[in-house]
Design brief:
single chain, 709 residues, alpha/beta
């Protein structure tokens, strides 16, 4: 089984998956799979991807087109120049990176360049895709200007775009993700009012087919190109690379060239020449070999074996000639100096570039194999410099490693803390639609925070992600079950309430008024137990049912029945409405709804029906307790009591009695205090003061007693 795939982040839907599966089918290729590798980060890349021996290649999409490079063994010349990879071929365990975006862009743009010449282009965005676009524009001789939200010295910001810049840069290419589905109404922030029919707008986005960016440009008369042609072009090139990096004709041509090089090396080895011409011929043949592509697969092994033997024979002959040894030493010294310059350049940079360590290992191998020998003097001098630079790089590598480990540990702590918060959160009670809505939003927030935390070690990443999924799965399962049951209960409630409405209609038209009254009252009781519905739908059905009952009772009250001396019927209806009310609202609206029922009941206070009053009060308090709004309801009730004139008069009447009680208590305390003055002189000032206070209190007490009587 051969495995290919797409590597990226948040790529549950991909063009590539569908395209290559259809490609395999159309070519009758069996035992082949195309998978989607949706990775949160590349921390576990070796474990998740490269350990699969069946993997033969894969595509890369955002945001990993640049970061993938540090995991590869080799880059194609085009990918190396662009600095971004979107296709990897694995051959004999070697991971080789390619860039096919450039090919896809170039062939899709070509037909439009035949119609109109463009000298300058605007590149919107700085991601991996933009690097391929810049490569093609340079090749085509079109001068680019990059626009970025965070521009470098060679770039400009969106705020810097002027009428002159727009008018002179007639080719505009969107390399940013702005406008991708589902945010299809968005578009890059450029001054569209300066676009003319001379412009060509290219959007790398392929979903939707025509973005808002392209639609705005087309309204101004500009030509437009969507991202689909480029997508197909780059995919076809990837297919070609996976199945054969060069076609059979090219391989046969390469075979001829390499056989010719081997023959020339053998002839060179037979010559007895000891001057620079001999050595330069040797170097030229080595260079041509390196720049020649793959030979046919059948002859690859033998050709490589013959080449290395012939090359070593020539090298041994060179090392036997003093004049040629000097040239060889000089050549090797230039290689060493180039390597040392590279190391010095790295050390001058603020940060070491991604993948530097693999390149460093390559340079070490080159130093040992291709840059030796040199003269004894140069050997010592360059070796000392190599050691110093290598030690400095090793220190930098260790520093980076320590910082990376520290960052991993910090991120691990953050993720563990967030997992604890999620774990405590998901076990909280969720018993209503409103509570599930709040909890779901909170879970999404916590999940987003967890995913946004930076990388951790490969081992921890697997473990932590597994723990997260272990919390997420039961939460989502419980949520889905709740809404499934809620949906079913809504269906049952609708059926029950509609049935009660139909029965109420029949009772309303019954000639037996007394029996109809009994039936409607029974139906009202049944309505309370017929379940709840979403507010809008439940209110609509309740109003229909209530109107039937009200119309009937209004009609029958004018006919006969015992006139009502109080508001009992109004209270009954209000109580029934409360019992059928849907409190699946936010907290402020719940408070408002409770208080409105409390107020309506208070306004019917002249009715005396102790059982009904107590039942209403108990139900209202239990509902408030269930919603955790007991304090708010009590506060509102107290406010209503204070506004009642009867309560105010009652409190005013009770005030003298209250004051009398307080005065008697104070008098008792003073009389108790006299016990402390048993042995004191009558002239003691504190004793005199106490007697005076007692006399004053006694006078006030007598006055209040007269008022109360």
């Amino acid at each position: 089984m051969n495995v290919y795939g797409l590597l990226g982040k948040n790529i549950s839907y991909s063009f590539s998956e569908k395209y290559f599966k259809e490609k395999f089918e159309s070519q009758n290729i069996v035992d082949t799979q195309y998978l989607v590798f949706d990775l949160e980060s590349l921390d576990n890349l070796n474990q998740d991807l490269f350990e699969n021996p069946q993997l033969k290649g894969f595509n890369i999409t955002i945001p990993y087109k640049e970061k993938i490079i540090e995991f590869l063994d080799e880059l194609s010349p085009i990918a190396k120049e662009i600095g971004a990879v979107n296709t990897v071929k694995i051959e004999n365990g070697k991971k080789i990176g390619h860039n096919t975006d450039a090919h896809g862009f170039e062939i899709s743009l070509a037909p439009f360049l035949e119609k109109q010449k463009h000298e300058k282009a605007l590149i919107l965005g700085t991601g991996g895709a933009s690097k391929a676009i810049l490569y093609v524009l340079k090749k085509l001789g079109i001068k680019p200007l990059v626009v970025s939200r965070n521009p470098t010295k060679s770039q400009i910001s969106y705020l810097d775009l002027t009428q002159e810049i727009i008018e002179t840069h007639t080719l505009v290419i969107n390399c940013s993700p702005v406008g991708t589905f589902p945010k299809v109404d968005e578009s890059p922030g450029i001054p569209y009012e300066f676009i003319t029919e001379n412009h060509l707008f290219y959007d790398l986005i392929y979903n939707p087919e025509k973005t808002t960016f392209l639609a705005k440009a087309q309204e101004k008369g500009a030509q437009i190109i969507g991202g689909y042609p480029m997508l197909v072009g780059q995919a076809e090139k990837a297919w070609e690379i996976w199945n054969d990096p060069e076609n059979e004709t090219d391989r046969e041509k390469n075979t001829e060239i390499k056989l010719e090089i081997i023959e020339k090396l053998n002839q060179l080895n037979l010559q007895n020449v000891e001057d620079a011409e001999y050595y330069n011929q040797y170097l030229d043949l080595i260079k041509i070999w390196k720049n020649t592509g793959y030979p046919t697969k059948a002859k690859t092994h033998q050709i490589n074996t013959d080449y290395h033997k012939s090359q070593q024979d020539c090298l041994e002959k060179i090392l036997q000639s003093p004049s040629l040894v000097a040239l060889h030493h000089k050549q090797n010294l230039s290689i060493r100096e180039e390597i040392l310059e590279t190391l010095e350049k790295w050390l001058k940079e603020d940060e070491l570039k991604p993948g530097y360590h693999k390149e460093w290992l390559y340079l070490k191998s080159k130093w040992e194999k291709s840059a030796s020998p040199v003269s004894l003097e140069d050997e010592q001098k360059t070796k000392e410099k190599w050691d110093v630079l290598s030690n400095d790089l090793e220190k930098r590598r260790q520093e980076i490693l320590e910082k990376k480990i520290a960052l991993f540990n910090l991120n691990k702590e953050k993720k563990l803390a967030l997992l604890q918060e999620i774990e405590a959160f998901v076990i909280q009670a969720k018993d209503s639609n409103e509570s599930w809505k709040i909890k779901s939003e909170k879970f999404e927030t916590l999940s987003g925070e967890f995913k946004s935390i930076g990388p951790v070690s490969s081992k921890d990443s697997t473990k932590l992600w597994k723990e997260f999924l272990g919390l997420q799965a039961p939460f989502l399962k419980e949520k889905n079950q709740f809404y499934k049951e809620l949906k079913n209960s809504y269906k049952e409630s609708i059926i029950a309430k509609k049935d009660l409405i139909e029965k109420a209609k029949l009772a309303q038209n019954s000639p037996d008024v007394k029996q109809a009254i009994h039936t409607l009252k029974a139906l009202q009781t049944q309505w309370k137990n017929s379940g709840v519905l979403p507010r809008k739908e439940g209110q609509k059905l309740w109003e229909e049912f209530q109107k039937i009952c009200n119309d009937f009772f209004q009609k029958t009250s004018s006919l006969n029945t015992k006139p009502s001396k109080d508001n009992s019927r109004a209270k009954n209806e209000l109580f029934l409405a409360l019992q059928n009310e849907n409190f699946d609202l936010d907290k402020e609206k719940q408070i408002e709804l409770l208080n409105s029922y409390n107020l309506k009941w208070f306004e019917l206070r002249d009715t005396f029906n102790s059982d009904l009053d107590q039942n209403f009060k108990t139900f209202l308090q239990e509902k408030a307790k269930q919603l955790d709004l007991s304090k708010e309801l009590e506060k509102h009730s107290q406010s209503l009591k204070k506004s009642n004139p009867r309560n105010a008069l009652r409190e005013k009447k009770a005030e003298p009695k209250k004051n009398l009680s307080l005065l008697i208590q104070e008098k008792s305390k003073l009389e108790n205090n006299l016990a402390f003055f048993k042995n004191s002189s009558k002239d003691n000032p504190l004793l005199k003061e106490t007697h005076q206070k007692l006399a004053a209190l006694e006078s006030e007490i007598q006055s209040l007693k007269r008022i109360n009587n």
